[in-house]
Write a structure and sequence with these properties.
Layout: E1 2-7, H1 45-60, E2 64-69, E3 82-84, E4 87-89, E5 92-97, E6 104-106, H2 111-117, E7 124-126, H3 139-142, E8 149-156, E9 162-170, H4 178-208, H5 219-236, E10 240-247, H6 250-257, H7 259-274, E11 282-287, E12 290-296, H8 300-316, E13 326-333, H9 341-363
Antiparallel strand pairs: 1-13, 2-5, 2-9, 3-4, 5-6, 7-8, 8-9, 10-12, 10-13, 11-12
Helix pairs in contact: 1-4, 6-7
């Protein structure tokens, strides 16, 4: 495990001076953004979708089905993000074919489902997709799984958000019977209710995992996320890094300018710390004026790059009352090292305090 204390420029009298003009610095993000692949908290989704798609296919006598997530929140704590043509896309498809256990996630062709959800709550049914004037050349029709018949029920939240669609498909041109249409629509309403319930539950859970002052993760969410990322680190044999950040002289800042000013400083600092992070990184208020950053799939060099960008971002800000300084410690663990996540946390914390105490000793 590597451990580093990362220092900002030492200015012993910085707190005593008035605010100086911030230095302009440029930072370049050399790390590629990674997709989120969900977490243990979202393990409910795929088994539920497998059941609904199995029922939909049985009701409609269809060999395969799909649930599409479009632009609405479906109640995931860590939403899936696909990278399409270098850009993040929150839309997803979950497929279930005859004889398949579970579901398969993809992001192929959303054109039919985007059109279906614009029809309000009306069922969309296309008996022969390959001869359809609008969608005959769509990817679903011209490549695997070579869809001929397509039927979809829109999934709409109580507030009007277009969550997605529940679809059944066939490789043979056909039509649904009246009973099949009715059954598919009722299943769609039930799936809507399930997703709406998860959306409500996720909002309540998020409140218990969010720091009320800074609106970032709190200590509880940090502990949960660290365990998730540690499990992923072991499973995928990828490096994992952590940064610990602490505001120097914060007690003196509070005593001089008041606790409301200190709260405002922490809120602003949280925004600054979040600015150079990827979607897969995680920021939390660890306690008091300490912040923790979890950097999945990040080696020692990558962690140093993030730390440099954070220091540059802090230096660029025109802070109220006076300049601030931060102490920053980093630790990285590689797949070949034998340790646990407590050791990673302890190493990052130790590196930060070595930096902080070293500065205090130099200033004394």
């Amino acid at each position: 495990m590597t451990m580093r204390n990362l220092q900002t420029p030492v200015r012993p009298d910085a707190f005593k001076r008035s605010m100086q003009p911030a230095r302009e610095r440029a930072s370049v993000d050399t790390r590629l953004p990674l997709a989120n692949f969900g977490g243990e908290a979202d393990a409910w989704l795929e088994p539920m979708l497998a059941d609904f798609l199995s029922l939909a296919c049985n009701v409609c006598n269809a060999p395969f089905g799909m649930m599409t997530q479009l632009h609405g929140d479906i109640g995931l704590q860590h939403p899936f993000v696909s990278v399409v043509n270098g850009r993040g896309d929150v839309r997803n498809q979950w497929w279930r074919f005859a004889g398949q256990n579970g579901v398969s996630r993809s992001a192929v062709d959303f054109s039919l489902c985007e059109a279906a959800v614009r029809r309000g709550r009306n069922l969309t049914e296309i008996s022969d997709l390959q001869s359809d004037l609008h969608f005959g050349e769509s990817e679903l029709a011209t490549s695997m799984p070579h869809v001929r018949f397509y039927a979809a029920v829109p999934l709409v939240a109580e507030n009007g958000d277009a969550l997605g669609t529940l679809c059944v498909m066939d490789r043979t041109a056909r039509n649904l019977s009246a009973a099949e249409r009715d059954g598919l629509q009722k299943l769609g309403r039930q799936l809507e209710a399930q997703l709406e319930s998860r959306r409500t539950m996720q909002k309540l859970e998020q409140q218990t995992l969010t720091d009320s002052l800074t609106a970032i993760g709190n200590r509880r969410s940090f502990d949960l996320r660290l365990r998730e990322e540690w499990t992923r680190h072991l499973r995928n044999a990828r490096p994992l890094s952590m940064l610990m950040v602490d505001v120097d002289y914060f007690k003196q800042y509070n005593d001089t300018f008041g606790h409301p000013a200190g709260d405002a400083l922490l809120t602003q600092l949280a925004r600054v710390l979040r600015s150079p992070l990827r979607a897969s990184d995680f920021l939390a208020r660890y306690g008091g004026d300490e912040f923790s950053l979890i950097l999945p799939d990040t080696d020692e060099i990558g962690a140093m790059q993030v730390a440099d960008r954070i220091k540059q971002a802090v230096a660029r800000v025109k802070w109220p009352h006076t300049e601030i300084e931060i102490s920053l410690g980093a630790a990285t663990v590689t797949p070949s090292e034998m340790c646990d996540f407590h050791a990673l946390l302890g190493a990052a914390d130790k590196a930060m305090y070595e930096r902080k105490h070293g500065r205090a000793k130099n200033n004394s």
